[in-house]
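tool_call: predict_structure(chain=1)
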Amino acid sequence: MLNRKFLRSRFLYICIGIVLVAFLTRVYRLSEPKAFYFDEVYHAFTATTFLHNDPKGYEYWQTPPEGVAYEWTHPPLAKLYMAGGMAIFGENSFGWRISSALFGTGVIAMIGVLAHALYGRKKITLLALLFASLDGLLLSMSRIAMNDMHFLFFALVAVYFYIKFRRIVFLPHTVSASVRNALLTAFFLSLSLASKWTALYVGAGLALDMVFAIITIGKVPLKSLFISMIGALIIIPTVYLASYTQFFMQGHTLTQWKETTQQMWWYHTGLKATHPYQSRPLQWITDTRPVWMSVDYSQNAVGVISNIYNAGNPILFWIGLATMLFVAIICTKKGVEQFGAFITEQKIRKKMTITWSVWFPLFLYGVMWIPWQFSPRIMFFYHYSPAVPFLCILTAYIFVYALDRYRRARPFLYTGIVGMIIAFVVLFPLNTGYPMPQKYFDTVFSVFPSWK
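tool_result:
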């Protein structure tokens, strides 16, 4: 339980303030543009069919109206949340986007929660929250009716409960607590999977980490692991199948569900389409090929235009990339010194000990990015968004380590933070579609020609 002193602490108020600002940036002018844009013609449109209990939204064999399409290539949970937003706020652009904004805000909050769970230091938590709230990729994907923020939020909650599980599973007499956290991990992982299959990367990463822990630590808590494994094998398929409740209540059969799942697999493994703004994973880490999602020329008569790009914060991405490379090199040279240990405040100030809490965010970052290098299908910049939380967390850790240890580095680090804030402000109209003079866009794209 949270004690009264913590609930009244300035630290908590600052954290809440950062999350609140992140929420405001996500709901400000959220209803613009009024019509579907980019992949909303699939996700948001299909959510409207869910709202009206129209079975065509689930049926891959149906011919959609012109200009839109039925989105059956992903599980339905995220679209059900979009339908819920419309049930509350009306069948309009705000209604179909509000769930993305809420879950996107939840992603920012969970980044802070994960940073605190890993390191237990207020400075790292605050910086991780700040970095995440300044990122344009997470911002723009929180303002569009797609499934990415829904899946990512549930995935981060699953990671949080895995951290709690991992912390105690190898300790004696913790069977009940460790199993509880393992089952919560499985539950939220299944919600993530029911939103987007990319959650399989997260699940595989957590499983690999546990296997590595068993091998390196050498103490195998058989009872906890056995109960947890059985529970997970029950929870994950049950919750995933439950996300299709409306599908079955409409009269669809289990055979049709299996055929739909097979069609989903064929789609993602055999998609040969091309797009002017497709990109490769190596372009994501340098923020060089965002997606142009929307343009509005309606105010062109007065020299004003509205564009929406899901561009990341370039200063954060470049510093973060350097951070990830630095930590990867250190891990390679020194290995994991205390794989089962967590960072303490004293250790971080005296020495950069490569414990599990340093290695784990780097590992998950790689899990969410490296597999895309081998994907045969068309890819977009927003596929990088699940890796960004771990980039923010580890960058915050390195910043605090450097601030505590190297006084001469402080001006450079503070300059980096100021640079992130300036980049966020400059790119905010680009991330949110705020109308700006044409000269603004000409200037931005002169700096980043590959964004055009």
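agent: The first strand starts at residue 292 and ends at 296. Proceeding to next step.
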